[in-house]
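Q: Sequence in, structure out?
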Amino acid sequence: MFQLKERPELKIKPEDIDANLRPQLSTMLYLTGGEAWLLSRESMGTDPEHTRLLILLASAGQFVLIEDTLMPGSEEAYRQTSLSEEAMESLSALMAPLFPRQRVPAGRPPKYSLANEGTEIFIRHLYENMSIKKLAREYQMSPTTVQKLLNQARSRAARQMLSGQWPLTAGTTHYQQDISVLVWAASHLDKDEQAACRQLLLEHHYEA
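A: Exactly. Output:
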């Protein structure tokens, strides 16, 4: 396991991201609930919003490198790469003592995780309309595993909407998709949470 040094000046939170301009990055940060560091911000034009962001995300002991680009006249270009243990070891060796090593706990880590594959599947299925079958082929998983990870991500997203951690605002780029998550959750979460989902949907003039 690796632990990064505290660099509060580099920390970035979900609310720091404009969900209208960078919906995929915003979703990733809200959904994983991990810590994120803004490694660099490169200007792509005269508008300060047109930038390329390079972000390191740490969640559940795993690390993801995110490149998110907003060019003039184009939509968000989002790309992420999961950093393997070998990659982190290489970074640790190159950049020590920025990445001090810690003892790795005993036990085999899960093959797939909500922090990595689950979040990617959620984004690509919900916002890019990729089918379960196509995602299963691309990730070399069974459709059942893809569906399980997708449902875990939906549940987490819905709970964040209920808590207010994930803003649900009419008119945002993916408002309808976010509403669809609540509709799903209104019949799949625990009984009390289902009722809370239905109430929130009514506040947005929807019925489950």
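The two ends are 42 Å apart (CA to CA).
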